[in-house]
């Protein structure tokens, strides 16, 4: 099929919910994606932070293929050794003690929300169910995670949403104004990804942790985008030197297969009892085999050190470009503000020139595979530099 035929079939058969770039990606290797016409692109997006090890990493493909040829699925009515191995690995690497597996970031957050509400209902009664999230946050597309998302634009036309959420600014005065007797949790992204790659202030996060401790309010860190090595720590909460009560993970954890994980400490480990939650595919053995292959690489301190070094190199080169106003983010979760021209237009021009980049609000956003080489970083940034020069 030609690209035009693919585009037409997409229009015919797919709900048109995505503003797609004009290309169909059909294969990939390392940090290079290849479209249906054989054109190659350096990929600074990794499928929005999913392909942690790049395209078709041999360690990952072999683990997934081997598991697919052994046992592709069992229901959660039976014990699942791959799921247990993955949970044990996650707990050992993070200090948490229990995990629930779903299939996406939104589902991981749904579990976190249910867990926080049930913890509070069991201990204090049902009326203590409110959750504070932050303005400009993004937590998913289900009706409840949309309600958790602190951006009105996402809510319009989908009301009524799940009740019980309020939105604070990223300062303690605002959190305290929102908090009341009926508050059971505060949910944050340590770096607001979709909101423009905006890291939260360290002092604010520390104070928030203390405030939550004082009131037995659970602190939930949505690490769907910032987790699994993306920021140079296995989870971004480690960069902030705090321990959330609940962490959600997805995207990069599966390395290209759908997974969501909700992690909690010992205190909350027994809250979700039999029948309180579930998922047909959650913790599927093939997906878990892929995630184990990812953690086998990303869970090493030497690998995380490399992510930090590559992130610093990327940041330095990007910041030195004439058309860039500022760069922010951590590790290889980076955003850049252009001095002139729109990020969307720049992303389109980059694609036409063989480079895939993301945008978030007015920012260019970069989530390259964690295994990207310095050579690919240089080659991609050279394309970006050429594109933004055209705006001057
Ligand atoms: N939470 C955050 C911080 C995200 O960035 C996203 C997706 O971009 C989600 C939740 C939703 O994840 P998913 O699309 O896997 O449901």
Task: Describe this structure as you would to a colleague.
The structure is a single chain. This protein is α/β, with parallel strands linked by helices and 392 residues long. It folds into two domains: 7-32 and 301-389, Aspartate Aminotransferase, domain 1 (Alpha-Beta Complex), CATH 3.90.1150; 60-298, 3-Layer(aba) Sandwich (Aspartate Aminotransferase, domain 2), CATH 3.40.640. It has helices at residues 3-13, 46-49, 58-68, 81-94, 105-124, 143-148, 152-155, 172-178, 202-215, 285-298, 301-319, 343-352, 374-389, and strands spanning 25-29, 32-35, 40-43, 98-102, 130-134, 165-168, 183-188, 191-192, 198-199, 218-222, 246-249, 260-264, 324-330, 333-338, 355-356, 358-360, 363-366. Strands 4-12-11-10-7-5-6 form a seven-stranded mixed sheet, with helices on both faces. Strands 1-2-3-15 form a four-stranded mixed sheet. The protein has a four-stranded antiparallel sheet with strand order 13-14-17-16. The model has no long low-confidence stretch (mean pLDDT 98). Bound molecules: pyridoxal-5'-phosphate. Residues 104-106, 109, 138-140, 189, 193-194, 222, 224-225, 250 line the site of pyridoxal-5'-phosphate (PLP).
Which SSEs are present, and which pair or pack?
Elements: H1 3-13, E1 25-29, E2 32-35, E3 40-43, H2 46-49, H3 58-68, H4 81-94, E4 98-102, H5 105-124, E5 130-134, H6 143-148, H7 152-155, E6 165-168, H8 172-178, E7 183-188, E8 191-192, E9 198-199, H9 202-215, E10 218-222, E11 246-249, E12 260-264, H10 285-298, H11 301-319, E13 324-330, E14 333-338, H12 343-352, E15 355-356, E16 358-360, E17 363-366, H13 374-389
Parallel strand pairs: 3-15, 5-6, 5-7, 7-10, 10-11
Antiparallel strand pairs: 1-2, 2-3, 4-12, 8-9, 11-12, 13-14, 14-17, 16-17
Bound molecules: pyridoxal-5'-phosphate.
């Amino acid at each position: 099929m030609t690209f035009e035929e693919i585009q037409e079939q997409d229009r015919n058969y797919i709900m048109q919910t995505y503003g797609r770039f004009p290309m169909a990606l059909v294969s990939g290797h390392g940090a290079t994606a290849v479209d249906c016409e054989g054109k190659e692109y350096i990929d600074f997006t990794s499928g929005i932070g999913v392909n942690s090890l790049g395209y078709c990493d041999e360690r990952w493909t072999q683990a997934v293929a081997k598991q697919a040829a052994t046992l592709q699925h069992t229901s959660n009515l039976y014990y699942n050794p791959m799921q247990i191995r993955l949970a044990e690995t996650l707990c050992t690497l993070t200090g948490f003690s229990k995990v629930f597996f779903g299939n996406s970031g939104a589902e991981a957050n749904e579990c976190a929300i249910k867990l926080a509400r049930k913890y509070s209902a069991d201990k204090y009664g049902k009326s203590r169910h409110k959750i504070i999230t932050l303005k400009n946050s993004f937590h998913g597309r289900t009706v409840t995670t949309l309600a958790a998302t602190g951006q009105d634009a996402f809510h319009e036309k989908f009301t009524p949403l799940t009740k019980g959420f309020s939105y604070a600014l990223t300062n303690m005065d605002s959190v305290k104004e929102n908090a009341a007797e009926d508050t059971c949790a505060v949910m944050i992204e340590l770096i607001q990804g979709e909101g423009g790659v905006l890291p939260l202030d360290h002092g604010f996060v520390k104070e928030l942790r203390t405030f939550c401790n004082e009131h037995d309010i659970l602190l939930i860190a949505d690490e769907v985008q910032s987790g699994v090595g993306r920021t140079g720590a296995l989870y971004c909460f480690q960069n902030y030197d705090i321990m959330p009560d609940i962490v959600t993970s997805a995207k990069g954890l599966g390395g290209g297969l759908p997974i969501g994980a909700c992690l909690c400490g010992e205190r909350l480990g027994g809250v979700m009892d039999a029948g309180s939650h579930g998922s047909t595919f959650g913790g599927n053995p093939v997906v878990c085999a892929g995630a184990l292959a990812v953690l086998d690489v990303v869970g090493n301190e030497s690998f995380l050190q490399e992510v930090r070094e590559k992130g610093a190199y990327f940041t330095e080169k990007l910041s030195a470009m004439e058309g860039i106003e500022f760069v922010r983010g951590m590790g290889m979760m980076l955003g850049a503000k252009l001095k002139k021209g729109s990020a969307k237009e720049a992303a389109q021009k980059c694609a036409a020139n063989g480079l895939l980049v993301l945008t978030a609000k007015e920012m260019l956003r970069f989530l390259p595979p964690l295994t990207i080489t310095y050579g690919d970083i240089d080659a991609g940034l050279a394309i970006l530099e050429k594109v933004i020069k055209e705006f001057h």
